[in-house]
Amino acid sequence: MIEVFIRPASIFIRQLNNMTILSILHFPDPRLRQQTKPVTVFDDELKTFKDDMLDTMYAAPGIGLAAIQVNKLKSMMVIDISETKNDPRCFVNPALLEHDGLIKTDEGCLSVPAIYEPVNRYERIKVKAQDECGEWFELEADGLLSVCIQHEMDHLKGKLFVDYLTEMKRKRIRKKMERLRRETM
Ligand code: ZN
Questions:
Q1: How far is the CA of 40 from the centre of ligand 1 (A)?
Q2: Which tens digits make up the pLDDT trace of 81-138?
Q3: Please, are residues 64 and 108 in contact by the beta-carbon 8 Å criterion?
Q4: Which residues make beta-bridge pairs with 127?
Q5: Which residue numbers are catalytic?
Q6: Domains of the chain: total
Q7: What is the domain range of residue 40?
Q8: Strand locations in the chain, DSSP E?
Q9: What is the CATH number for 180?
Q10: Ligand 1 centre from 55 Cα, in Å?
């Protein structure tokens, strides 16, 4: 196992069996509030980054991860809602084309660990995005996949699911996160 700690960016990268686990930013880290930039270069580096994001998401474990959560300002996210964890999807420069209906589900987020709160989302959506090679595709999604895509697309705009909660709830979560961070420092 190789452990690398790079200063001053505080990027902690752990390599284990050729897996790269990237460090995930936690709410209320202001870096999660940045706007991401469109991806214009589809090279090997991007493909490696996609693999690293998937490794990080599966290891967490989670069902979705946006690049900004690992401190990369790229309009890019990975999702796998399958129980067998063998259906990875990559969305680069995603855009919402259509939406229909509303659905309320409990959401969680790798950047807000151990917190689950109900959030309203569109029930069905149609999105377009590029894959890691730059190929455009369109996808119609409903249920969990629809919710997950909308959650990750929010990240790309610097928005978190806690923004949909009441001010009081958000403050409580912020305090809990800050306490957790102090305890693990
Ligand atoms: Zn999230």
A1: 24
A2: 999 999 999 999 999 999 999 999 999 999 999 999 999 999 999 999 999 999 999 9
A3: no
A4: 96, 139
A5: 152
A6: 1
A7: 2-184
A8: 2-6, 11-16, 19-21, 64-66, 76-79, 89-109, 112-130, 136-142
A9: 3.90.45.10
A10: 16
